[in-house]
Amino acid sequence: MPRNILDDIVRxxxxxxxxxxxxxxxxxxxxxxxxxxxxxxxxEALGPRATGVGLIAEVKKASPSRGTLAPTLDxxxxxxxxxxxxxxAISVLTDEKYFHGHLxxxxxxRGAVPVPLxxxxxxxxxxxxxxxxxxxxxxxxxxxxxxxxxxLRDLLQAAKGVGLAALVECHTVGELETALAVGARVVGINNxxxxxxxxxxxxxxxxxxxxxxxxxxxxxxxxxxxxxxxRVAVAGAHAVLxxxxxxxxxxxPAKIRELRAVEAAGAVDAPSHSARAGGEMGVPSxxxxxxGAVDAPSHSARAGGEMGVPSxxxxxxGAVSRSAASRISGTR
Length: 332
Hints:
Elements: H1 5-23, H2 26-34, H3 42-46, E1 54-59, E2 62-63, E3 67-68, H4 75-84, E4 89-93, H5 104-110, E5 117-120, H6 126-135, E6 139-143, H7 149-162, E7 165-170, H8 173-181, E8 186-190, E9 192-193, E10 198-199, H9 202-207, E11 216-220, H10 226-235, E12 239-242, H11 244-247, H12 252-264, H13 273-277, E13 290-291, E14 309-310
Parallel strand pairs: 1-4, 1-12, 4-5, 5-6, 6-7, 7-8, 8-11, 11-12
Antiparallel strand pairs: 2-3, 9-10, 13-14
Helix pairs in contact: 2-6, 6-7, 10-12
């Protein structure tokens, strides 16, 4: 896989956004959002619990490096199985070119499950927030490595105004510092280091102590067994995001039970955030290496939700132009 795949994805996403904005004006999306019921509570679904760890189960047909993962995938049927067997939230890949997803999947899946939906895509502009809300998402992914800090802050605030939660994803100390500085409430730690194209659960274990109390921590990528989930749960992660292991499982309910077995083991004897954080974030920033989330361990680079490869800050389609909150009533 080309090392600049993330740059390619972001470039193509800008082109896609221009086409979508021409086809569906922002005012049309805003009007649709005014008539929607409140979003399902993504943060509540993943927050601290007495035992166990939350599960975000992902609907994903393909990835740039692995190709098609599930050629006969029925997204709605899979999402229904996820919800029926204990998933706390569902991540839906909506990127078409690289992940074979579609925005329309959100609406179809929302009608079939009662749990919150995360739109997994490359969010670059406020338009996508309104688009996500109108399509049925309850939360969006914001990737630190493809946004300037000011852009990330604007999008995070605009998401609140639109009525969406945000999973703010990081991989390095520097990216984590940025996520915390802009006020991210739900912090995703991507376990993939795409300078070596390896997935390390240790990434979560190393960054968790730097996160102060009051945040919800989601560990993303690299989970195939219950033992792997237990490692991050004991360290204090509140939830894990799992895609490929579930999409390719021969028995999805059994795989969910395995990943959730940490609950039966009472594994969350996790240190508190305050004990982990030590009350200090003062560490030197490191250059961002890669960002992007998804799940399966692989020694080849994989982009997007898996979303990750060596990256450079991407220019957005434009800063948040005006307060999203002032443009919607009845959304929340």
